[in-house]
Amino acid sequence: MGNMLVEALSTLTRTKCWVRKDILLLEFTVSNACIISGLGKQKDQWVLVDTGLENSGDFIRHVVEDELGLGKKPEAIILTHGHFDHVGSVFELATHWDVPVYIHPLELPYVTGKKDYPLADTEVDDGWIAKLSKSFPHTSIDLGDRVHPLPEDGTIPHLPEWRFILVPGHTEGQIALFRERDGVLIASDAFTTVKQESLMSVLSQHETVSGPPKYFTTNWEEAKKSIQKIIDLNPQLAIVSHGQPIEGEELRNRLQELMNHFDEVAKPHHKKTVE
Ligand SMILES: [Zn+2]
Ligand SMILES: [Zn+2]
After folding, report:
1. Which fold has domain 2-265?
2. Residues 210, 230: Cα–Cα separation, whole Å
3. Which residues have their alpha-adjacent CB atom under 5 A from ion ligand 1?
4. Rounded-to-integer distance, Cα 136 and Cα 234, Å
5. Measured in angstroms, how far is the CA atom of residue 183 from the centroid of ligand 1?
6. Could you give the CA distance from residue 39 to residue 21 in angstroms, rounded to a whole number?
7. What pTM, to 2 d.p., does this model score?
């Protein structure tokens, strides 16, 4: 029921927006994905990062047709982690395009049917989405042979300018993607720019920098360290999976503020921690 509601919410507004010349952000109200395209002659070599919800596949395919051309397919799909609002359409799209999927080795068991995420914790917050989160899918999908571990050295197949940074806490093997040249960071759920636990905040996309979605986050010490790791990268633009992109001085200030007050603002007060 909660899941059906979130799927329905995800179709309320579905938008696309080029946030950089080669980065197309796809927004499905409750979560985001993005396309990193090649530039110039390499325009045809692009990848999809995350896949939205189970009903996001059609929209993604239409955007690809409109923006990149009919019959175009990515080199690969990169998953930042295995939560349902990031892997929802991965099976459909990877099969349709017949392309490989990559994820961090620590996250692999959650997309190959070997390990389930813990059930969402509804007690973390009074927000509606937190209350509904109990019925969010938490069991492993199984991508079988289609999914491969990302290389150990931090490189990302088909994205020579980017490297991945392990930002655990929200999940064991969550990654962010970073491009040194212009400081673009795809932060996944390491932090959010909405209060993702609250339905009103998600619908209005009211901007506030917050920690990872509380109901699914398991290790708050790791989550905090991941914020410091991100600050140390000195990103210029952050594309998050929940909320609007944030950049420049505002990004720097808000991240530092989040780090300084992490225990009060990010952590749930009843505190569920898997050590
Ligand atoms: Zn997540
Ligand atoms: Zn998420």
Report:
1. Metallo-beta-lactamase; Chain A (3.60.15)
2. 14
3. 83, 189
4. 34
5. 23
6. 8
7. 0.94
